[in-house]
Design a protein that fits this description.
It is built from 13 helices and six strands. With 259 residues, the chain is α/β, with parallel strands linked by helices.
Length: 259
C-alpha cells in the first residue's frame, strides 16, 4: 500500500488511488487517479513533478474562502480543467470553527468528525462537484487529481465513492481511506498544530486529540456510507439519483480507467 504514496517537498498526502482489482475481474489503471492535500505551498520541483503526471482535470473540493486563503499553484503551461464550486456557505470552515471554539479532546473530535461525515455527501457544493467529477472521469482527458485542504475527509469520501462505483472490494476501499494515517506524519505534525491552536484559542490541546483530529478513522467513512444508505437505500442509488451516474456513464468510467 505504501508504494501508492508520492513524496513531495511541500505537498501532503499525495497518493495514487487506482491500481486496485475490481469485482468485474478488471484492474484500475495506475497513474490515472490521484488525491492530495492543497497545492498552495508547493515548490518549483513539486510543480515540475506534478506537470509530468499527465493530469488533465483537478477537482478542488474546498470552499471559496479556503481557495482564497490558500490559492493553488499550477505547473508552468498546464492547460487542464479545474472543477470547483461556489455553492454553499462562504464563511469560516466548520473544522476551523471547531478547533477555535470546542474542547480539544479525542471524544469531542470524534463526535465532531462523525457529524461532518454524516452531512458531507449531501452538501450542495459536494453534490455539484461529485457529479462533475464523475462526468470528467467518463469524458475527460488525462489523469484526475482530487483534493481538499488536508486531502482526507472530502477527498477520502469521493475516492471511496469512486472505488465503490468501480467495484473495488470494501476492505481495499477502507484501507485506501486509512492510508492518510501513513502518508501524513501525524505524530510529527501534532506538536506544531497544538502550539498554533493554543495561540489562537488560549487553551492547550492534548497531543492525542490533535493526532486523532489530523488523521482518519473507519467510523468516519462508515458514518457517511450509512447515511447514504439510510437516505437512498444504497450507494448505487445515491450515485445515480443524486449525482447522475447512470449505467452508461458507469460503463464509460470503467472502460476508461481499466488497465
Amino acid at each position: 500500500m505504501t508504494d501508492r504514496i508520492h513524496r513531495f517537498d511541500a505537498l501532503d498526502n499525495f497518493r495514487d488511488y487506482g491500481d486496485y482489482d475490481t469485482a468485474a475481474g478488471r484492474r484500475i489503471a495506475r497513474g490515472r487517479l490521484f488525491r492530495s492535500a492543497h497545492q498552495a505551498r508547493v515548490s518549483d520541483a513539486d510543480l515540475e513533478r506534478l506537470g509530468a503526471l499527465g493530469i488533465g482535470t483537478i477537482v478542488d473540493l474546498r470552499r471559496p474562502g479556503e481557495r482564497r486563503d490558500q490559492p493553488s499553484k499550477r505547473p508552468l503551461g498546464w492547460a487542464g480543467q479545474v472543477l470547483d464550486s461556489d455553492l454553499g456557505p462562504d464563511g469560516e470552515a466548520p473544522h476551523i470553527r471547531f478547533l477555535r471554539t470546542a474542547d480539544l479532546t479525542v471524544d469531542a473530535g470524534r463526535t465532531f468528525m462523525t457529524g461532518i461525515y454524516r452531512a458531507l455527501p449531501f452538501e450542495p457544493a459536494h453534490l455539484d462537484l461529485f457529479a462533475r467529477y464523475f462526468r470528467a472521469l467518463g469524458e475527460g482527458e488525462g489523469a484526475v487529481l482530487i483534493h481538499c485542504t488536508a486531502g482526507k475527509d472530502r477527498t477520502g469520501t469521493l475516492a471511496a465513492l469512486t472505488h465503490h462505483l468501480l467495484g473495488v472490494h470494501r476492505d481495499d476501499l477502507i484501507a485506501d481511506y486509512l492510508l492518510t494515517n501513513t502518508a501524513v506524519d501525524l505524530e510529527g505534525m501534532a506538536p506544531k498544530v497544538a502550539r498554533q491552536l493554543e495561540k489562537v484559542t488560549g487553551r492547550p490541546a492534548a497531543h492525542d486529540a490533535v493526532v486523532a483530529f489530523l488523521g482518519v478513522e473507519p467510523v468516519y467513512l462508515e458514518t457517511a456510507i450509512a447515511e447514504i444508505e439510510a437516505r437512498y437505500g444504497s450507494i448505487d442509488a445515491y450515485l445515480e439519483q443524486a449525482l447522475g451516474v447512470d449505467a452508461r456513464l458507469r460503463d464509460r468510467i470503467g472502460e476508461r480507467l481499466s488497465a
